[in-house]
Amino acid sequence: MPLKPIEVNREWHTAGGNGPEGLFCLGDAVENLDALLPEYEGKVKLVYMDPPFMTGDRFFMRVRVGEDQWKKGRGGMALEAFSDKMSREEYLGLLRQVLTRCHRLLSDTGMIFVHIDYRAHPHVRLLLDEIFGEENLLNEIIWVYQSGGRSVNHFSRKHDVILFYRKTARYDFNIDAVKSVPAQPKPNHMRRHVDPDGRVYRSIKTNGRVYTYYDDEPVAPTDVWQDLSHLQQKDPERTGYDAQKPLALLERIVKCASRPGEWVLDPFAGSCTTLEAARRGGRRFIGIDRCPLTVNIARRRLAGADYGIELPRSVDAAPACEASIRSGVGFFHVTLEGFDAGIPGLPEGCAPMDAVDNWSVGYLRPEGYRVMAEFARTRKEGALRRELAVPVYGGELALCVGDVTGRSFYYALERI
Ligand SMILES: C[S@@+](CC[C@H](N)C(=O)[O-])C[C@H]1O[C@@H](n2cnc3c(N)ncnc32)[C@H](O)[C@@H]1O
């Protein structure tokens, strides 16, 4: 049967755990931070942000369309994700607005990490000094990587800068959480010994005192991070989103600057790396991004979490969608029969249903659309699953289709 489109502004994914773990807001960072302030002011423990770098470039997402592309992991459509074309005034104006709001959202024990490159660095550093106070700068972290090409016109640029500030002197930093045993002891001038238990240690005598360091002792990272590589071309972690950062980088930041149950915020969330790192570490998360493609990534990377997605009011006319519904014992079985988003430029040989990236069935509740069963294509399951089973509850049934361009369409589902 053809379905009637409906307006939805919030969807909730329920894992049946210990209550909401997080929120993803699609839209402008400043507007969404303003909306968060009444509820979250002074409650956020960690802000990580990786804003555009003022490069003047456009950034894309390679989107897979249909079973074949998902299974083979090749091809796809390159869709523009975001543009970094801003004047310095516009750029610093945006960051000033975002940073002042983040400062208010942070608790007194909170911290902020701002990820930038050599272009934006001096300007953003001065802005942060102004908003957070020079005395609250803790580190200028240099993240070194080897990926990308080599330049002959200047030295190859192989690092980003992450500026790390506390909100107040009461900040709660946990260096022990990020200590690790080095894979290989650094060659140095210290004498090597083996103790009676067979453990290797080094020693050095300075000013009459002997210092010993065991090779298997965990050590903390310094402010130069060379041990976390950038994502390689074929890295299984890759979502197809340009500018995606490695999970290991965010896990280090999340672990040292927040504790389980605390709120972690990323106002330029992109492919949701911070949200995934926060969730893996048992933290609660808030992400904001204005690129619609990020919603599909959120649905995939946060699968199984208890979280909400806030969407701006839909202005797009919903495409035709057909579904059928069958009653089983305690469940409705809903089959997606047809969806034609009419997307121009689908790769050759693709059928309209290949444009379905993900879909779900749920109930309309006062708090929004509550997802009960969902499917998103993955490498393992690239073929569109056509049937979803939802438990029989009271209330209005609804269905959502996320298309490959990042649009979400909602429809009412009439019970039989
Ligand atoms: C460098 S990317 C972030 C990448 C992210 N750290 C990751 O691991 O995927 C910057 C993001 O900022 C978003 N963005 C730019 N301007 C924005 C704004 N005014 N409000 C919300 N998001 C914005 C872009 O859509 C983009 O996804």
Q: What labels describe this entry?
A:
7 helices, Rossmann fold, three-stranded antiparallel sheet, elongated, alpha/beta, 15-stranded mixed sheet, binds S-adenosylmethionine, Immunoglobulin-like, 19% helix
- What CATH architecture label of the largest domain applies? 3-Layer(aba) Sandwich
Q: Give the neighbour order of strands across the main sheet.
A: 1-23-22-19-20-2-16-3-15-14-4-7-9-8-13
Q: Regarding CATH, which class of the largest domain?
A: Alpha Beta
| CATH topology heading of the largest domain | Rossmann fold
Task: Write the CATH homologous superfamily of the largest domain.
Answer: Vaccinia Virus protein VP39
Q: How many discrete domains?
A: 2
**Main pleated-sheet profile:** 15 strands, mixed
Structural class: alpha/beta
Count of DSSP H/I helices: 7
The amount of beta strand, in percent, is: 25-35%
Bound molecules: S-adenosylmethionine
Let me know the number of strands. 23
End-to-end CA span: 11 Å
- Shape, please? elongated
